[in-house]
C-alpha cells in the first residue's frame, strides 16, 4: 500500500494518501487524533516532525518514486503517515 500512497503524494493528492492511511489504521488514527487534540505539547512536537519530514518527502519525490517508497516504508515514514492523517483530521 505504500506504493499507492507514494503515487498519490507524487500526483499532489495528499488527501487521497491520507484516506488510504485512514482505511489501513482506522482505530489507531482516531486515537492519535484524540491525543493530538488534547495534548498541546504533543501537538507541537507532531507539527514540527511533520514539517521536517515533509522536507524529506519533497527531496525524495524529486529523485524518484523508489526513493519516496523507501522513505515512507521506514519506521519514521510510517509514523509520518499516521501523524499526518491524524493531524489533518483536526482541521
Secondary structure class reads mainly alpha
Give the strand tally. Answer: 0
Shape: globular
Strand content: under 5%
Describe the structure.
- The protein has 91 residues and is mainly α.
- The protein has helices spanning 2-10, 14-24, 26-38, 40-63, 65-73, 75-89.
- The mean pLDDT is 91.
Blueprint (SSEs and pairs):
Blueprint: H1 2-10, H2 14-24, H3 26-38, H4 40-63, H5 65-73, H6 75-89
Helix pairs in contact: 1-2, 1-5, 2-6, 3-4, 3-6, 4-5, 4-6
Describe the structure concisely for a colleague.
By secondary structure, the chain is mostly helical.
List keywords for this structure.
mainly alpha; 91 residues; 6 helices; single chain
Amino acid at each position: 500500500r505504500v506504493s499507492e500512497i507514494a503515487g498519490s503524494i507524487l500526483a499532489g493528492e495528499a488527501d487521497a494518501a491520507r484516506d488510504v492511511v485512514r482505511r489501513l489504521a482506522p482505530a489507531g488514527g482516531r486515537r492519535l487524533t484524540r491525543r493530538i487534540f488534547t495534548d498541546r505539547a504533543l501537538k507541537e512536537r507532531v507539527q514540527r516532525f511533520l514539517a521536517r519530514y515533509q522536507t524529506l518527502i519533497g527531496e525524495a519525490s524529486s529523485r524518484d518514486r523508489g526513493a519516496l517508497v523507501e522513505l515512507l516504508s521506514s519506521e519514521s515514514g510510517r509514523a509520518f503517515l499516521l501523524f499526518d492523517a491524524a493531524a489533518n483530521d483536526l482541521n
